What does this fold into?
Amino acid sequence: MNAVEKLDNLVKLYHEERLAHVYLLETNNISLAFKDLITTIKKINCPNEYAEKCDKCNICNLINQEALPSLIIVNADGNNIKKEQVLDLKRRFSFKPIYTPNNIYIINNAEKLNGASANTMLKFIEEPGENIIGFLLTTNLNNVIPTIKSRCEICSLIYNIEENKEDNPYYAVALEYIKAIELAKDDKIMYNRNIILNKYSERNDIEAIFKEILNIYLRLSVLQDEELNLKLDSLAINKRINLLITFLEDIATNANVELLMDKFIIELSDSKNESI
It folds into this structure.
């Protein structure tokens, strides 16, 4: 099943009253997974026969406006999801839902739960109130705290990035970059800088290219890519994924882009040497 089919299966389980109370969804495209998850929540709650761009019911309109009281979306505050955000979620869900049968929450980037917030979230998962359904989204299952991961129903939502590559100007650059460092084994700092910088110089473009690079490695963690013809073990792929996630977090803080690119290549080279 593809990602949308898996989410549609959750709708089926809901109507059969077999839905688990919390799901951990790993994906290679968190923005697309979030969009499809929102559609899934509409399908669960729409009082009509749900259709795309439903504008007939108040529930779907409230979800579109992120104004449905029984749907809470938690995003990281800075680099982490804070304990106070989880406590606020618990407080708001201590009341029964009014407009819908269930209270539903989404935790974006669940790997950013750590320390106090993770412990608070763990208690919330272990002692769920009635009529509460949770979805935790992550791009890297291995970075989610094990105690939380072990208490969730895990589902993989993998999107085929090749479907849209002809319409995506960043895909070819991302592929060329990966081929240079993985297949040609050429990890010279200036050479790899130039693969990107000779074509793009704006921060937003470089960030978009590295998101494509991350998507390719995330896909490799599940499926082999015939075009790339690159075979890496799961440990090597996870190291690259973690380095890319750190890169994207750092670039969002307005750090120097060229220095970040150099740092990525140096740390990637070091991780390769460690595995020899």
